């Protein structure tokens, strides 16, 4: 979110009725796979291609009928990703951050949920049957958590995509904080300049 300021959760929840709340989740799982038999995948991390052509995380606006941010987020995950999300629930313990923008008075809450690889594969498999597939969500993508020998392929070039709001920054922060990349690899990336 351009010009967004970071808030503590309690501060974000205390904002007045003129503010809307959106919740999004990074879903990830350990992945022992190897690309080309030599590049360790380490983790599978999901993002989605949105209706506007940008990459983002599954989720969306919380409605007034939702009892909590997490209830709203889990409802939106079900709509966007399908029935496989019923096997887990994003909880307050999965919360990572909140950012508020001045226009149009939106607070974005970000979560990260650790799944088993089987759960993540079920989400990927079932997402095409979700209510919002082909409408709000054009498809799921995995984030490449490696850098190829050329120093550009993999995560560096992935980061050149167009991301919605703070999704790029949330991704990088989560990858580093959750230890999903090898130590120091986020700061050591040769990330091409953004245009």
From TrEMBL:
EC number(s) stated in the UniProt entry for this protein: 3.6.1.62, 3.6.1.64
Known partners and oligomeric status: Homodimer.
A Pfam entry, by short name: Nudt16-like
PROSITE patterns in UniProt: NUDIX
Catalytic activity, reaction form: IDP + H2O = IMP + phosphate + H(+); a 5'-end FAD-phospho-ribonucleoside in mRNA + H2O = a 5'-end phospho-adenosine-phospho-ribonucleoside in mRNA + FMN + 2 H(+); dIDP + H2O = dIMP + phosphate + H(+); a 5'-end (N(7)-methyl 5'-triphosphoguanosine)-ribonucleoside in mRNA + H2O = N(7)-methyl-GDP + a 5'-end phospho-ribonucleoside in mRNA + 2 H(+)
GO annotations of cellular component type: cytoplasm; nucleolus; nucleoplasm
UniProt cofactor(s): Mg(2+); Co(2+); Mn(2+)
Key word NAD present: no
Single GO term (MF): snoRNA binding
Species this chain originates from: Propithecus coquereli (Coquerel's sifaka)
Location in the cell: Cytoplasm; Nucleus, Nucleolus; Nucleus, Nucleoplasm
Entry protein name: U8 snoRNA-decapping enzyme
Entry keywords, A to Z: Cytoplasm, Hydrolase, Magnesium, Manganese, Metal-binding, Nucleotide metabolism, Nucleotide-binding, Nucleus, RNA-binding
UniProt key word Zinc: no
Similarity comment: family membership: Belongs to the Nudix hydrolase family. NUDT16 subfamily.
Protein origin, superkingdom: Eukaryota
Example GO biological process: nucleotide metabolic process
The Nudix hydrolase domain, residue ranges: 18-173
């Amino acid at each position: 979110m351009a010009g967004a300021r970071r808030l503590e959760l309690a501060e974000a929840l205390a904002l007045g009725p003129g503010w809307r709340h959106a919740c999004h989740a990074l879903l990830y799982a350990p992945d022992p796979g190897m690309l080309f038999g030599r590049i360790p995948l380490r983790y599978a991390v999901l993002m989605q291609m949105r209706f506007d052509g940008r990459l983002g995380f599954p989720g969306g606006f919380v409605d007034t009928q939702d009892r909590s941010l997490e209830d709203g987020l889990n409802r939106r995950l079900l709509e966007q990703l399908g029935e496989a999300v019923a096997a887990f629930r994003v909880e307050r313990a999965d919360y990572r951050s909140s950012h508020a923008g001045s226009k149009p008075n939106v607070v974005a809450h970000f979560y990260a949920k650790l799944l088993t690889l089987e759960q993540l594969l079920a989400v990927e498999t079932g997402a095409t049957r979700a209510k919002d597939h082909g409408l709000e969500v054009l498809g799921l993508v995995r984030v490449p958590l490696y850098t190829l020998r050329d120093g550009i392929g993999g995560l560096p070039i992935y980061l050149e995509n167009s991301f919605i709001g703070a999704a790029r920054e949330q991704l990088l922060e989560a990858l580093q904080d959750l230890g999903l990349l090898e130590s120091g690899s986020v700061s050591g990336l040769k990330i091409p300049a953004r245009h």
